[in-house]
Each structure stands twice: as C-alpha cells, then as structure tokens.
User: What shape does this take?
Amino acid sequence: ASPKKVIAGENGRAAKLEVQNMKLGEPDASGRRRPLPIEGDIDIIDIDSVISAIGQGCNPEGLNELSLTKKGTILADEATFMTNVEGVFAAGDATNKGANIAIQAIGDAKKAVDVMDSYMNGAMIPFKEKYHVERDDLTESDFADREKADRGTMSHLSPETRKTNVEEIMKGFTPEEAVRDASRCLECGCHDFFECKLFTYANEYDVEPEKFMGEVHHREQKDEHPFILKNADKCILCGQCVRICDEIMGITALGLVNRGFETIVKPTLEQPLVSSGCISCGQCVSVCPTGSLQEKLLINKSVPVQAEITQGICSYCSMGCQLDVETKGKMLYRVLPVNNNPVDGGLLCVKGKFGYDYHNTDRTLAPMIKINGKLVEAKWKEALLLTTEAIKDLQSRYGKDALALLVSDHMTNEEIHTIKTFAKDSLGTENIASLSAKPNGLKDVFGKNASPSTMEEMSSSDLILFIGSDISDTHTTMGVKMRKAAKNGSKLVLITDKPTRLDDSADMAVQVKNDLAFLREIAHAVMKRISAAPRTEGFEAFKASLETWAPSDSALKIAELYFKAKKPVIVFDEARTTLETARLIAGLAAASGHVGKAREGILALKPASNSQGLADQGIRDASTIKAMIASGTIKGLISFGEDLSGLDLESLEFIMQSGFNAENAHSKTDVFLPASASFETSGSFTNTERRVQFFEKAVDSKTGYENWQVVSEMAAMLGTPLSFTGTLNIFESLRLANPDYISINGRGFWSDGSGDSLYLEKFATESGKAILFPAEDGKLFEAYETKYVLEKAFEEYLEKESLK
Assistant: This one.
C-alpha cells in the first residue's frame, strides 16, 4: 500500500491516512517488479500520529575537502575505499551509490579496515572479492527434507500498557527461544569452505569460469550412509578417493563410472555407499580436495566453522593413532587424521574418525548417590565426602586392606599413576588391579609384559606371521600396514578363525578352530630343524613337549617359511589368544633365534588404548581381588572406568564407581562419579609398540573435573593431599618412579636412538635368557630361580643405561 493523503481531524491533528493498495507488476530491466496501483482500491486508516521515514541522504557539511558524487555522497574508490584526500577512507551509506541495508555498510567497513591496515604498513592492497560459486536455481523442492519451522513470536507489552509509559515494547527472546529461532536457519554454504583446495586455487589464479560456462550437472544426492555425505556435482574427478579405497584400504567401495563429461564416482555396482562394502574409515573424505565427500558432523546443527586444532590420540584400540581434534568454543567439532605420522601414516578407522560422538552425546555429568535404593543427582562435594567417609569407616573397622581399587586400561598414564599413588599414600593398600588385565605369556617367557618389536620393524621384515581374528575389524590401521608390507615384498601368512579382508593380500591364509593346536604343529616342525637355542632355559623340555603334534601340510609350509626367513615378525592379538598360545609364540621365537635383533621378533596387539601403560605401571589382573571379595576380606571397592556388570559384589558394604553413564552402573553402586573423556584432559597413552604419546586437552571437562583431579580431591579430604599440580607434574613423578620411563623427558619413545632396536631386544641380546614353557600344560619349567636372576640382571641393566 502506498500513502496518498493525510486527513486532519477537527483539532487540526492527523486523524486518518488515505492509502492506495498496490500490486506487483512485471519485472523491469533491472529485474525488479515495480508496484502498480489497483484502480479504485483505496483504504482509509485511523491514525493519531505519522512518522515519516521515506529515505535518507548524505549531509556533506564540514567535509569541504572531499570530492562528492552528483548525488551528494562522498566519492571513494570502490577497491581501496580511499577518498581524494590521501589517508582518508570512507565506507557505508554516505559513499558513492548511497544508502543500502545496514549489513552492507558493516561489510564495507570490514573490507576497508584490511585495506587501511595494509596502507598503514606501507603497501596498500586493494580489496578484491573472492570468487564464490553461487546458485540461483534452488526451489522449495530442494529443501523438501528440511522441516518447516515458523518464525518465533517475541513477547511484547500490550497496547493498554504501552499507552501509560515509554518502556521498551519488545521483551526479547529467552535463551531457549533464541536458540530455537536461530536453529530454523538453513545455514547455506559448503562445509568444506575452509579446507577446499579448489576454492583456494580458483582465487589464487584469478579464475574466470564464465568464459567456459556450459552444461551443469544436477545429480540426485540421496544416500543413507551414517557418516559420509556425497555431492557428485562438486567432484573434480581427481580419483584420489577411488585410489585410497582400493590401493591403501583394499576395499574397492568406490569406482569411476561412465566416460567424458558424464564420468561420476559411484559405489560398487552403483549401490548406496553403505551397502558397497564400505568400512566407514573416512579415508575418502580425508583426501577429497573439494566438498564432494564430507563428514556428517555429529552435532545438532552442521555448519562450517574456522576451528581450533589440538593434538589428540585415539582412545579405542592399542595402535595409538594420532588425531587433529577440531573444536569451536566448548564444542568438539570433528576429528581428522594427522598426515605422515609414524604410527598410522595418516590413516584412521571408523572408530578413530567418527567414534568421538560419545563426548557430545548424553553422558552423566553430575555425581549420583544412592538414596532409598536409587541413584539420585548430588553435588560433587556431597558425593566425594560420602565416599571418603565410607573409606574411613571401612578401614577403621576392618583395616586398610579391606579396600580395593580397580582401574581401566582406557585411563591415561597420568590418571593410572595418580590412582596408584592414591592407593599407596592415601589408602595404604596394594589392592589395586584391573579387570582388563590378564596373565601375560610374553612376561612369563621374557620377563616383561611388552612387545620386543615395533611396527616399523614389522613393516621392514621379510615375513609377517599373524595369529588372531580379522585384524581389519580389531586393529584396522595395523591391517593396512600389513597389506602395505606385503605389497613391498614381505611374505604375509594369516592364521585366523574365519576368512578376512586381508586374505587377498596374503601368501597363505589358513582358517583353524584351534590356533594353539595348529601353532604346536608349526612349532614341532620348526623344532625338528633346531638342535639347541642360546639364551633360553628349558629348551629340551619345550622341544620334547611338541613331539606328539604331527604337523599338517599347511603347518609344514608355514614352519618352512618361518624357519628360512631372515627377519620374521609374529603379530598376534592378545585379546583373542590364550595364555598358552602367547607363551608358545614367545617360545617359538626365542628357540628359533628370531627375537632380540632388529626387524624380527614379536608384536603383541594389546586390547585397549593404554593396556601397555597399565602393564608398565605394574597393575596386575584382578583375579586375586575377586578371590578376596568372594572370601569376605574386601569390604569396599573404588572403581575407575571399569565395567562392573556381571560381577558378584553382594558381600561388599560400599562401592564407588566412575564412568560415562550412570545407567550402566552396578546395582550395588553407592556413589557414581561422572568420568571425563580423553578429549577433556591432557596426558599420554603407551601404545602396543611401547611408544609413549602425549596429547593435549581439546575442551574443558563437561563434568567440571578431570579424572586425576577427582582422585586428588579425595586424597585431600582424607588428609593425605597429593603433590600433583597438573598432568606434566604427574608424568614427571611417574617417570622418576618407573625405570621403563626414566629416559622419557618429552614426547618420548623407548628407544636407543637408532630406530632399529629397543632396549628389551638390546638387553636380551647382551645378557638375557628366555624361559621356555612345555607346550602340553603351559606350566613354568623349573625356572623360578632363573626368572629371578633375569629380573635382577634386567634392573641392573636399566640402571646402567639410565646413568649413561
């Protein structure tokens, strides 16, 4: 409607407004639809005041030195924003074409300040608009998958109230209303805006795509993959996704279909990606130089942001793959692989790439205490006080050893050391163990629960003998390393319980139901070729125990390969092998002389992110504590990160349990303390090859406490405060208390500096003896005294090395 006439009342004041109703006509040359009057359609509106706001202009008074346009606005260069007066810049509504919407003036100012900054630094750089691809063909149907949400209505004062005061009319949104209204926005734009190489190069080389404009694809983008978004129209057909999926991962889930302009990257047999054999490793997303393949971000509203990056370590398996953790404020945004790092070579599996969502999902963030048989939310001080009072009560009635502590192998080295110090100094007990730990075959044979070999040595060996299940499922990046080694000339032999995705890369792939029996057949065949083994105890008994195991043809072939290999490495999955199997593997390597030297030996894959760190700090398996609970000796249990489900804890009088979700707490738990995630603390993990890797805190703990701080608070409440002030301080204490870590004073790796052999091999070569176990029963063969001598010699060796 267009105002035509103001009609005055009897008192001479404005009383009515005559308006002409309008309609939009056809677009003019500028594309604007001009309003046209509807003949005879006039309304009369009752009014009591009129505010005239029909435009604005520039008042140049006092700006006599500046040149003006014909419209009376300030003349300023469109690229530099400088006026005709050197050093005087102008931007916004008072310049050139005149007034526009407010955001235009703000945008001009943002551009101008960069130019002014360059001018002040001696070389003025004019503003140049970056080239962006824009689309004007989008319709409502393109957003059919989005929920329509009406604009929120802001509460305001009623007309009756307004008449009596000059208060602000609109009351504003509550925080919840503001978030809800902001969430309606579709947030247009490519999620790869800050990473897209095509965008970077297009602007660096001043592209002019309109010169080559032609047919444009508009392909349907539907796909049900849980982690990956595809947009074929952004694909530049570089083929990197196809190559990494085939040549590195060995999956072949993607391929190039059709030819010429119609070429497109599609999943196998043109199925949905989720049905193509894709293992969701995300490598295709990592190498895609444009936004053609992107992560489905695991946040409520997926938007591109300029994120901060901190160094992290994957907390799932024992590989210790390195991460770039992207955060924005308090939000964990996404996780990316770290290129060319020595552990994983820039690769991640589905857990490392997309498994960080546990940090953002619903976790228990407040302590819980049991009242009337149910866990209810409580304050931190209340929960910690209840725990420490229960500790004092139990120890006063039953003695210090009435308490036991359990610690998970997912905890950091620093958290484990803090808990161990708490047990010793605050509780005065050595009843500390882990449900995750178990008796170790390598320790029985070599005196150390640690792999003698490294991943680098495995990759350069001439034979890899793998024993376990499908490594592509359990330790995906290790499987990639083994595939790469096979391509580079290493022979690869697999002994598994079922066919695996690595079988196609293997020289031999054998499926057996009983790997222990099959290994005894192999060991029998190898022992027939060996007369004696230096640096071993019990060799003859070990050899005699294998006499009855007649080898099959497959066992004979594998034995021949292993015996003739110059640098073989045995890789096995500890979580899927028995104690006897691990002892046999160690005995086979020791007796055949294939351990204690560079690029040959054994690599044991640990089950969890810090299983090795747990073992290094002497945390034993929980069999003794379970027996003490069953006998009634232990009356209270303090558990950090352990899963207590399935344990019979009815005899206990008090249980404190920490974890991520109180719903998973044991039914007998009296206090539940929420645990912080690895992204919420700094510290270190020791991976399966004994590499100690440090990582940084990416975001503050959602619970308000880091795990080590919770333990420290408990110690202070018991009157025995710990001296720790931070994770670096804790690691220094750990380093001084543990001979294995004494030489680590930075981002360490237990190494002699050469990169070829580590101290365990060096020790075994110079002065050690391996203890062999008869294959029949797996019992120690008259070697207790030898084992003691071995450990003492080992301690002396470490002391000598540290003095150097």
Remarks:
- Residues 746-768, 776-789 have pLDDT under 50 and may be disordered.
- The radius of gyration is 36 Å.
- The CA atoms of residues 773 and 780 lie 6 Å apart.
- The chain has 23 helices and 27 strands.
